[in-house]
TrEMBL record:
InterPro entries recorded: Cystine-knot_cytokine, PDGF/VEGF_dom
Signal sequence annotation: 1-22
Protein name: Platelet-derived growth factor (PDGF) family profile domain-containing protein
One term under GO cellular component: membrane
Keyword field: Signal
Platelet-derived growth factor (PDGF) family profile domain boundaries: 35-134
GO molecular function term, any single one: growth factor activity
Amino acid sequence: MAKCVRVLCVLLVEPFLSFALASEDTTMSWTTEMKTKRQAEVGYTIPKPAECEPELSTVNLRQSEDLTLYYIPSCTRIPKCGGCCGNFGNKKCQPVEVEPLLLKVTVKKYLGKRKWKTLPPEFVKEERHIKCECGCIVKQSDCNPLQEYSSAECQCKCTNRDEKQKCDANNQTKRWDPTTCSCQCRNNMLCASGFTFNNVTCSCEEERLSLRRGS
């Protein structure tokens, strides 16, 4: 009797399991198909990052704007540094090892009526980039005497911080210029006749008698 019950259970359950497994396979297949179809409709791809390295770049070889001159070739491709250097915009891909090139270019001049004249070749100096690295756009040589260079931030920073604090205290009329490290008036206005603009008070003031005499 027990064997009959087991056989009966198997007979009843097996079709259900087969249907469930088939339904699961169908659902997975349908889900995968829908994902593929959705991606195809959107048409997106996952981009690869552009590493900082030498890559072929087009270089113009024309040395003249004279349209009667024909350069052979007019351009070529030379390895130049290219690629991404972070998201902050303070660095760029720069060459650290280069090889000088001297390119010989054939030049012909059009004389009209299908006549050409071969001119002496022109030599174009170029560089092939061998090795690249991400470096600061702003260099230490770009700093003025009132600035110090921060290699971590790739920028020149003003050293006269006390003057900056005083300038920031008068932020309604003045603003701090980090390029010149000086306090500037927010608005440089044109003054009426007999008045001159004062860069200290940031306002038009009556000209002094001494200035009138000196003019």
